[in-house]
Write a structure and sequence with these properties.
single chain; 2 domains; four-stranded mixed beta sheet; about 35% helix; about 20% strand; globular; binds pyridoxal-5'-phosphate
């Protein structure tokens, strides 16, 4: 039986509550129930709900100029947003192309890499290498790159060829090795794979800097990205870092790559870029590559009606001003440590929790059937869904990850807005503990 109404909703088996208003870290539904948004939706609401400054900036921009086609005009707000981003991105990564969502940013990055090679007279470089258990979005190009099997399988016949290598996921190392004796085998796998497919055919390697949607906030070993960067340089393969989830201050640095001193050739941003207020994403590219495109083909056949959108850019610019003025990136680092310690203290002893990991205000709590053997729950038991429902009943919103162990595996992502207060962290962690005890035991 379907749900009444005309909406093709995101949940098809039961009606969703109706969100009525939201402020700070709280959402209220039409029944007056309040929920602490402990994951900022899908790790999106970085600066909190209902920010006045963003609303005013968007309102003003609509009245000033709400649309001018991006092939016909630029706007000062889009120029200003680019400069604001360039103030914080690693040196040299300072040209930005704006779009409306993370998947679209990933599609754009893949095409941009190809365009850089075309402009450099390397037309044979067509292949993309990415990682298993990654999350890059659900449009066909991004889904082809993504490594979450349950999302890929139904559409597998429609996907294009992307070569996948194992992720840095020491908890379940694909090689059965242990860090650090492993020699970071998952990073040297890139070298081997490039050689196997033919270095002259490889365009780019795409990876999330911090594994997010599938591996639930799993940071790589410290050395991982310096090895990856060297391999990419050696073979002239472009490095695309997907920071749609982990960028924009979420990890306690403006960009997660800054934790590892690695500068990608291309970076993708989304989600927190507008704090979830409007559909906005971006692709940042190193200026040397931008110059190559300008001097080479002089054209990037891409874009779209809503690219470089001034109103979305006004939201993005307002978010960056809030982050700067309120020191929220530093706050994400401080409060992230607090949240991480509390999660470990309250949940570390539970027999169903195998691992609590994270960085800044991006944390993952992995759930297992047997902690000693790290055996996951079978997926059909839908354990994380049950825990999520219990938490939702208690008025706490988290984000689910599945498919961490083959097609099994469950985890929760905790990633609240950067403005969360200490007593709200206590409330969240206490309820998380009781929800796990009540649901799994
Ligand atoms: C790392 C990463 N890339 C891309 C995407 C896709 O973004 P969107 O859902 O805005 O298309 C996501 C979404 O979760 C993501 O986490």
């Amino acid at each position: 039986m379907s749900i009444p109404g005309n909406l093709f909703a995101r949940k098809l088996d039961s009606p969703l509550p109706v969100a009525e208003k939201a402020k700070g870290v709280w959402i209220e539904d039409t029944n007056g129930r309040r929920y602490l948004d402990a994951s900022g939706g899908a790790v999106v609401v970085n600066v909190g709900h209902g920010r006045d400054e963003i609303a005013r900036a968007v309102y003003d921009q609509i009245l000033r100029c709400h649309y001018a086609h991006p092939t016909m005009f630029t706007t000062s707000v889009v120029e200003d947003l680019s400069s604001a981003l360039a103030r914080h991105t690693p040196t040299g990564l300072d040209r930005f192309y704006f779009l409306s969502g993370g998947s679209e940013a990933v599609e754009t990055a893949i095409k941009m890499a190809r365009q850089i090679h075309l402009a450099s007279k390397r037309p044979e470089r067509i292949r993309l290498i990415s990682r298993w258990k990654s999350y890059h979005g659900l449009t066909l190009g991004a889904l082809s790159a993504m490594g979450r099997t349950s999302f890929r399988t139904p559409y597998a016949p429609l996907l294009s060829e992307v070569v996948h290598i194992p992720p840095p996921y020491c908890l379940r190392c694909s090689y059965g090795l242990t860090y650090p004796e492993c020699g970071i085998r998952c990073a040297t796998a890139l070298d081997e794979t490039i050689q196997n497919v033919g270095a002259e055919t490889v365009s780019a390697f795409l990876a999330e800097t911090i594994s997010g949607g599938t591996l639930a906030a799993y940071p790589p070993p410290d050395e991982y990205f310096s090895i990856i960067r060297k391999i990419c340089d050696q073979y002239n393969v472009l490095l695309i870092l997907d920071e749609v989830m982990c960028g924009m201050g979420r990890t306690g640095r403006w960009f997660a790559c800054q934790h590892y001193d690695v500068i990608p050739d291309i970076i993708t941003l989304g989600k927190g870029l507008s704090g979830g207020t409007l559909a906005l994403s971006a692709v940042g590219v190193r200026s040397i590559h931008f110059e190559t495109i300008c001097d080479g083909s002089g054209i990037f056949v891409h874009g779209g009606t809503f690219s470089h959108h001034p109103v979305a850019a006004a939201a993005g610019l307002a978010v960056i001003k809030i982050l700067e003025q309120e020191g929220l990136v530093e706050r994400a680092s401080q409060y992230g440590e607090l949240l991480g310690n509390k999660l470990k203290e309250r949940l570390g002893g539970l027999s169903c929790v195998s691992d609590i990991r994270g960085i800044g205000l991006m944390w993952g709590v992995e759930l297992v059937k047997d902690k000693d053997t790290n055996t996951p729950f079978p997926r059909h038991e839908k354990v994380v869904e049950c825990v999520w429902d219990t938490l939702f009943e208690k008025g706490i919103i988290t984000y689910k990850s599945t498919g961490l162990a083959g097609t099994d595996g469950d985890a929760l992502i905790i990633a609240p807005p950067f403005i969360i207060k200490k007593d709200e962290i206590d409330f969240l962690v206490d309820n998380l503990g009781s929800a796990l005890e009540e649901t799994i035991g």
